[in-house]
Amino acid sequence: MASHRLVNILSELDNRGDACCDEDFQAIEKQGASLSVPLTVDLLHSALYADGNPYEVWRAMREVGPVHHQVAKTGSEFWAVVGHEAGKRVLTDWKVFTSTRGTTLREDDNSAPYPGAGKMPVLTDPPRHTDLRRAVAPLFTPRAVEKLGALAREVAGSLLADLRERGGGDFVTDVAAKFPLAVQAEILGIPPGDIPLILDATGRSVDEAEHGSAGHHDVMTYYLNALGTRRGDAGRDLIGMLLEARAGGLPLSDEEIVLTCDNIVVAASQTAQHAASGGLLALLEHPAAWEALREGRVGVDSAIEELLRWTAPATHVMRTAVCDTELAGTTIRAGDALAVWIASANRDGTVFADPEELVLDRRPNPHLTLGAGMHFCLGAALVRVLLRALLEDLIRADTSLALANPPDWQSNWVVNALRSLPVTVVPA
User: Fold this and answer.
1) Shortest CA distance to 290 belongs to which of 301, 279, 274, 275?
2) Quick check: 223 and 80 in contact, CB under 8 A?
3) What secondary structure letter does DSSP report for 113?
4) Residues in CB range of 40: below 8 A, 6 or more apart
5) How far is CA 74 from CA 43, 77, 315, 416, in A?
6) For residue 199, what are the CA distances in angstroms to 74, 216, 268, 273?
7) What is the 3-state secondary structure of 33-78?
């Protein structure tokens, strides 16, 4: 039964010294008597993520139902949406589920005012979201992305060549972390010499749960200083496009420009990084799938979609109900916070056949990794171009990579992120 599996998981955590209160076990055992009762487990307990995402926990919850009420030990109260259909509705129905009150869970009060709410794309609803998105969209058109393809292949080749020359290294720090910003720096308005600074800041922004973290602060400070030197100097980069939109009549304060830059730069650097590192780990852990890809028996495009489904860099996305509604038979009240656990929705057996298997030629593949609806990832095409550049170089190489040591995961319920992935070069 689902409840028994959760008890076993929490017992294992407790035996490792990751304190789970006795109430966890007692509540789950009682709830297991009736599978119509939502199971409760503290999804903000960082130990659950010590070895990556807690897929067994989510699977047990899905067996009971797609929506579960949660109260974390820290006091955070929310609805955990673990099913695909319910999750997609929350992500797409912005008239009922707003982004303006936060998009990631907080450890205390999810109803408190959220920093930057209503002032950057991720924290706005239409029509403001549409205006902000339209202002920067020219940077991510198919033509603009196509132009970056050659640079992506060049940068991927250089980083991987350096890794091979050294006989191996940490794929996260040596390749995956550096790669996205190196390709996108120009359109993001980041001179080459500033890339390490932004790389450090964006990395810290997702390693800390609160939106107002030091990492975000450093990104915003950087763009505030850059804005001070760019007034009246519109150009074909991030700040330039926002200044051009303001000159064209879009009401846009300096604060909104800086917050939008922070939003886009963090997303641009982190999504591809975690998909790339998690994707390589998936291939190394599934040698038959990796061999099929290298031999051309599986196409790169479908492999990219499956790796995106598998890795789900954004572990959850939060919305807040603006009115009373019903979701998958559950009554949701106005003001309730809902967290769509993307990684769980991507393994929902009612949507995906063999959801726990890495199937590189999976079709269809309606994963939610890049979002859905109005908030579908603005840089989705670019993420795919970046992943393609890395995969094609790995496929062409006359050597391969293997795990040198176990991977190290961030114990993080915001992003599904590897801290390190030690690899060694081996014969193909």
Assistant:
1) 279
2) no
3) P
4) 27, 28, 31, 68, 69, 70, 71
5) 11, 9, 19, 21
6) 30, 11, 11, 11
7) CCCCCCCCCCCCCHHHHECECCHHHHHHHHHHCCEEEEECCCCCEE
Structure confidence at residue 116 (pLDDT): 87
Burial of 398 (0-12, 13-18, 19+ CB in 10 A): exposed
Amino acid 396: pLDDT: 96
40's tokens: 């409760």
With H, G, I as helix, E, B as strand and everything else as coil, classify residue 315. coil
CA nearest neighbour of 238 among 269, 264, 272, 199: 264
Q: Give the tokens for residue 182.
A: 């190196």
Using pLDDT thresholds of 50, 70 and 90, give the confidence band for residue 40: low
CA 277 to chain centre: 12
State pLDDT tens for residues 163-203.
Answer: 999 999 999 999 999 999 999 999 999 999 999 999 999 88
Estimate the crossing angle of helix 195-207 against helix 254-285, to 10 degrees. 80
pLDDT digits (tens, 9 = 90+) for 277-305: 999 999 999 999 999 999 999 999 999 99
Burial of 135 (0-12, 13-18, 19+ CB in 10 A): buried
The model's confidence at residue 206, banded by pLDDT at 50, 70 and 90, is confident
**Residue closest to 4 by CA, chosen among 47, 59, 49:** 59
Instruction: Write out the two tokens for 148.
Output: 């970056």
Query: Is the bond leading into 127 cis (omega within 30 degrees of zero)?
Result: yes
Is-cis flag, bond preceding 407, omega within 30? no
pLDDT at residue 73, rounded to an integer: 84
The first and second tokens of residue 173, run together, are 């720090």
The string of pLDDT tens digits covering residues 156-173 is: 999 999 999 999 999 999
Mean pLDDT, rounded, of the chain: 89
Helix (H, G, I), strand (E, B) or coil at 310: helix
d(CA 393, CA 7): 44
What mean pLDDT comes out for the span 384-405? 97
Q: Determine the residue type at 387.
A: L
User: Does 377 score more than 70 pLDDT?
Assistant: yes
DSSP 374: G
Respond yes or no on whether the N-terminal peptide bond of residue 38 is cis (omega within 30° of 0): no
Give yes or no for residue 6 having a pLDDT over 60: no
Distance (Å, rounded) from C-alpha 67 to C-alpha 338?
Answer: 9
pTM above 0.70, yes or no: yes
Helix (H) / strand (E) element for 15: namely helix 2-15
- What's at 82, amino acid-wise? V
